[in-house]
Design brief:
This protein has 267 residues and is mainly β. The chain has strands at 5-8, 12-17, 23-29, 32-33, 51-54, 60-61, 65-68, 71-74, 83-84, 94-98, 102-108, 117-125, 129-138, 143-144, 148-154, 158-169, 175-180, 188-202, 205-211, 215-219, 225-231, 247-248, 254-264.
């Protein structure tokens, strides 16, 4: 197995594995671990550790299918009967560039995706930030896409959120378009209209999650971890009939950014 690639700043140290979905396998904030790590990368579920990207869709896709231009496209039901979290989290990525403070990776969609294209992810560190820039590109035609990040935070960190709206989950455990007032935890739910950016804190350190994504899936049910997942739209929004569908083309890629911004209680 190839060693993870490292990038670091005075505050952050981040390790990335191109062969394991290009994910951030580990991150430390002044030496404090941030993410759940894998004890056995070859046998642990690839959806359950580190921080990986979700492309070309995020969250659950109902019955592993969607319709575009009157054509139904069937995908692998890896969360039977649904498809979840895209195609890139368990496949190798190519390294485009790597320095002491930045890494850029690329993933080409294969035949499991019905359209021609690729995605690119740049992870960089500065004095007080980890910056993730993710994009989805079409090499032929116009088609629907989503993107997002799926960090598994250790529950040694405390979560603070403040959203105006939560989207109702239907009996199939798929996010609907029905808006409701947020409930109390535990959550496996999609939120929107944040009054303030989600933050996590541990021993006087705070990380603010800043993103231009419109929706956030938050999963707090596990005992050992929680997930705060910025997404370019709500889950299950690839269909032409969905009000939040986003189309990419050869001239108009889908691009979003996620920042982990460090402060202390004294700031």
């Amino acid at each position: 197995m190839l060693p993870d690639l490292n990038i670091s700043s005075p505050t952050f140290s981040v390790w990335v594995s191109p062969q394991h979905g290009g994910r951030m396998t580990r991150a430390e904030v002044n030496g404090i671990p941030l993410f759940v790590q894998s004890s056995s990368r070859e046998s642990d579920p690839p959806t359950a550790w580190g921080n990986y990207v979700m492309v070309p869709w995020a969250g659950r896709l109902r019955n592993a299918t969607f319709c575009h231009n009157d054509v139904a496209h069937d995908l692998v039901a890896n969360d039977s009967p649904h498809a979840i979290h895209g195609l890139a989290f368990s496949n190798p990525w190519s390294v485009v560039e790597h320095s002491t403070t930045s890494i850029t990776l690329c993933y080409d969609f294969d035949s499991s995706w019905p359209f021609d294209g690729w995605c690119e992810h740049t992870i960089s560190v500065e004095q007080h930030e980890i910056i993730c820039r993710l994009s989805v590109h079409s090499s032929n035609g116009e088609w629907p896409a989503m993107l997002g990040w799926h960090p598994w935070f250790l529950k040694t960190w405390q979560l603070e959120t403040d959203f105006d709206v939560m989207l109702h989950r239907d009996p199939d455990n798929v996010v609907s378009t029905v808006e409701m007032t947020p409930t109390q935890q535990p959550w496996d739910d999609c939120f929107m209209h944040a009054r303030s950016a989600p933050t996590i804190s541990n021993a006087g350190s705070r990380i603010t999650l800043q993103s231009d994504c419109s929706h956030w899936m938050i999963y707090t049910e596990p005992v050992h971890a929680f997930c705060v997942e910025p997404m370019s739209g709500p889950p299950n929004s690839l269909d032409d009939t969905h009000p939040n569908q986003i189309l990419v083309s050869t001239t108009d890629p889908l691009q979003r950014t996620l920042r982990f911004v460090y402060t202390t209680d004294a700031d």
